Every structure is written in C-alpha cells, then in structure tokens.
Amino acid sequence: MDKMWAGRFSKALDKTADDFNSSIHTDCRMYRQDIKGSMAHASMLAAQKIIADDDCELILSGLEGILRDIDSGLLKIDMDCEDIHMFVEAELTKRIGEAGKRLHTARSRNDQVALDIRMYLRDESAQIISLIKSLISALLKQAEENENSVMPGYTHLQRAQPVTFAHHLLAYINMLMRDIGRIEDAVRRMNLSPLGCCALAGTTYGIDRDMTAKALGFDGITANSIDGVSDRDFCVELMSAFALTMTHLSRFSEEIILWSSWEFKFVELDDAFTTGSSIMPQKKNSDMAELVRGKTGRVYGNLMAALTMLKGLPLAYNKDMQEDKEAVFDSIDTLKKCLEVTAPMAETMKTLPDNMYKAAQGGFINATDLADYLTKKGMPFRSAYKTVGQIVALCIEKGCVLDDLPLETYKQFGDLFESDLYDEISLENCVSKRISKGGTGFSSVREQIKAVKEFLK
Ligand code: ARG
Fold it and tell me: Under CATH, which number does the domain 6-105 receive?
C-alpha cells in the first residue's frame, strides 16, 4: 500500500524500517476511541462549515460502520498499516470515497493520538478503579469476619503488639483507597482535550475545540497547542499511581505467602487459587500471590521507561513518544490481571484465628502493656520499660511468658505489681483497650469499617 505521504518521496519505505516504524500492533486497541474522536471532529467541521453536511453524514455513517464491523469481527484491522489512525482513515476512504479524504482537515495525527490515548486511559482507569473497589470489598468481608481474630502485629517481622486481623487488613484497604484517589486525581488533570492542537501550532481553520471537547466528555481543552501534543505527563502520572498500587498488592501478596506457610498458617488459600508441585506431593503453593509480587517489577519498569523516553525530547511531537503506549498498556494489563486474581483469592481464603492467637501468645507482645501497667501506677515510662525488659530476660531464661510468671517473682522487681497485672496483660485487654482513633481496639476497628463502607457507597 502506498504511504499517505508518497507524493513527496521517490522511494518506498524499506520493509524493515516499515515494520520498525509501525505501532498498529499496539495501538489497534484504541480503535474505538479513534473512531469516536473522528466522529466528533467531523461533526465539528460540518458545524463550522469547514466541510459540507453531506460529506459529514457520509463520514459519520462510514465510521459507524467501521466501528460496528470491527466490534463484530467482520472487519480485521490491517496490520500492514502504520498505526490505527492510518487504518481507520484508509478504510473510511475505501468505503465512502472522496468524502473520507476530508476527515483529516484541521487535524494532525499528533493531536489525534494525544486525544485517543487520553480517552483510552480514561476508560481503563474507570475499570481499574472498579477492580480496586472489588478488592477492597473482598478484604472488608474478611475484616468483618475477623473483627475478633487476635494476631501478632509485627515490626521488623518480630512480634510487636497484638492487633486484630481486621485491623491489619484495614491497613491495606486504606492504601487501596488512596490508590483510587491518586488515579482519580490523575484522570482529572488528564481530562482536557488536545484535539485542535493539530500538528503543534493550532490551525487557520475556524474550528471549535470546545465543541469536540464537550462531545467527547472532556472537562475542557488543553490551553497551549504545543503542550497539548508534546507531553505525556498524564501517562507517567497514571503509571506512577499504578506502580504504587502494585506496591501495595505486592506487599499484601508477600504476607499471603508468609501467612500460608506452615511456619505461620494464619490463612489457607482456596485450592482454586493455589498450585501443586510436579515432584513434591505435599505442596500447596501460593503462585498467584508470588506472580503478583513478581509482576510488580515490570510495572515499575514501564514507569521508568516512560520517564526516560520523555526526558530528552525537544518540543513538540517526536516519534519516541510512540513508545508511551506499549509501556502504559502493559502497566494497565498487568495491574488489571493482578487485581482480578487477588480479589477472589482474598475473598475465598480461609482464616485460621486459632493459629493467629497461638502466635500472639508467644513473643512477649504484651510487654508494652506491662510497662504501661507500671506507668499508670506512677512509674516513669522509661523506668517501667527497663524493669519489664529485665522481666522479659528472666522469662526467656526460664522458658516462660509474662503471663506465667508468679506474682512473687514480679514482686521482686517492684512493689507496684499486684494480681491485677494478669488481667491487664491478657491479649483481649491489650487489644480492646487500644481505643485511640485508628488503633486496634475492637470499637476503633468498627469505626474504621464504617468509614470504608461509606467510601464504597
Ligand atoms: N503512531 C504515532 C504514535 O503513536 C501516531 C502519531 C504520529 N505522528 C507523526 N507525526 N508521525 O505516536
């Protein structure tokens, strides 16, 4: 097929160069956005008397037919075309003749691609947000079922203080809620139409950019035509929000993997979300969680690729920018797949609160509460902290826990110890008394659950 620009050239493009230059394998997925954008552009051209109404009608029905035929599988996208924009225009002209050649008036592929990708990312972002919400719902369900499941909270992966499993899950839920906020925020900034920026300088035709922006669901237009076709900061912003979401999924996956191990056994994943081994008959592996953790790297890589691609580019459009799509599409596909598998995996996992409780009974996770016990009786916290440290050392020597040490032994460390200390350091009390806002206390966790439900509404 002759290139659109064949008039200026005396030779056809080298085959290897042609393949190298082509982006249709990647950008074909934007066909819907490309066609919708062209329809809005044609209607605007007619409204502004730049093309005739008859031509516009032909263009609109031609484009509608193309959309319908691609959707139904009747029309195959020709992978020999350079990109999706060229394909749609060529197909239109094939179908309606001369009128098709008028579509690209007062437009360039530079504003066209900037438009398509914004529309595409807007649609995908909405889907990603709804997938994150599904994951939040799955975690919330587990949290509600485990409001009373006491487990060790960790710092440095050392048992630290008792928390509830619900409280722990709510931490992830809050991270995911911020992820949604970041995506929404990026979309808000992105949602300005670049259509009408043309190649870079605007146009001499009397176009109406606000009309196309409105028709395509944008909040307004990009204010500077050079900027409108030059930047891909919105891709970077979204990829960065996606990378952070992957960070959260990856940390959650890591914990799922730990919790599923015999060493922890706080949860058991459903058979439908685990795999066996080809040699070891006893194995039940958390492959899904491991893959989510593993795939996080490529989403980070895509972000770095986009940032690096942009950093040296003179204004305005450069072909380097075609690389934005492979990166951002891969981040989208990866994140969506990870969310799609994590939500049902989390929803169906069985929690084992008895094991959590047993783990919480070891490791002196009520030591802070014992120090607080002395502090509330008047001892300065630092002194209490030191005394309890000595008691812990003694317990380690004796091979027991704080709850097992007789009162007489406690008395050797100070007069403030009374028999009420045992109640004070019971796991239930350590949890239920942490009613500070956001804390692990049962009532505080119920407040947090309420807030998430409000968010999901
Ligand atoms: N396939 C190109 C891209 O994705 C479309 C824009 C091409 N513009 C140009 N002046 N060569 O960036």
Answer: 1.10.275.10
